[in-house]
Here is the input.
Amino acid sequence: MWMEGKVAGLGGGRTGRWPDWEVAGWDHIPGAQQHHSHIPEGHRHPTIGNGKSTINVLSVGGGAGEMDLQILSKIRARYPEATINNEVIEPSADQISKYKERVAQASNLENIKFTWHKETAYEYESRVNAEKKTKKWDFIHMIQMLYYVRDIPATIRYFHSLLESQAKLLIILVSGKSGWETLWKKYGSSFPLEDLCSYVSSADLPRMLDSAGLKYQLYELPSRMDITSCFIEGDKDGELLLDFLTETLEFAKTAPPELKHQLMEDLRKPGCSENKDGKVFFNNNLGVIVIDP
Here is the structure.
């Protein structure tokens, strides 16, 4: 069956794999890691740990550390005298290894201490509760990882409970106004989905946060991805991109013809993409949620 072709999801690998299709996908997003410039100034550099000699940062689902190091560089620039204690929760040994390599090669990480925990968010919570040593944090971020937790509202509530009085919780995930939302609503039931992966976007967060009584700000980060090669029959890069968009291995070769035809038609439409200068740009907007203590 073609639905047996499911591969690791959007965040790269709670299973520890970064297959070619995923790399191809992110390679088509110009400045994929440069989104923070679109966040309003007041929250681009939130006031955290003011006056503290040590700032404690918790990265939940830190992956290979690309975004983490950018975030840390911003915090260090804002608080150059402070020591930063950065702890990472990441279940993939492969991702942690890549993260450590990235840290070893970086040259601007003075006064930053790194600690890695090979575990899921749920395992972290269970361990901390068992140890009865609840640690508070000045900044917690959860980037592209909420797709992989069993209970999203409970996960948010738990990590929010770990915030210091002047701290912030930052969540980034696909926007409810993105092409992903359109694809998931129409085709989610047709895509083979891992047990521990859910289709959630920024459109789902306000309801969860409001019911928990949390104060937050929601921002839209513009992003687009050139998927023109998807429409070139036999194009290797295009086939990898289709795998990325559908999270399905060899989708172009294994999907039922009618499903493939419908999806290719919808990928061209305004709900998913913009057609400009003979190219097709997929709407890859992200939603950013900044939650107050």
Summary: Residues 88 and 116 are 5 Å apart (CA to CA). Residues 1-45 have pLDDT under 50 and may be disordered. The chain has eleven helices and ten strands.
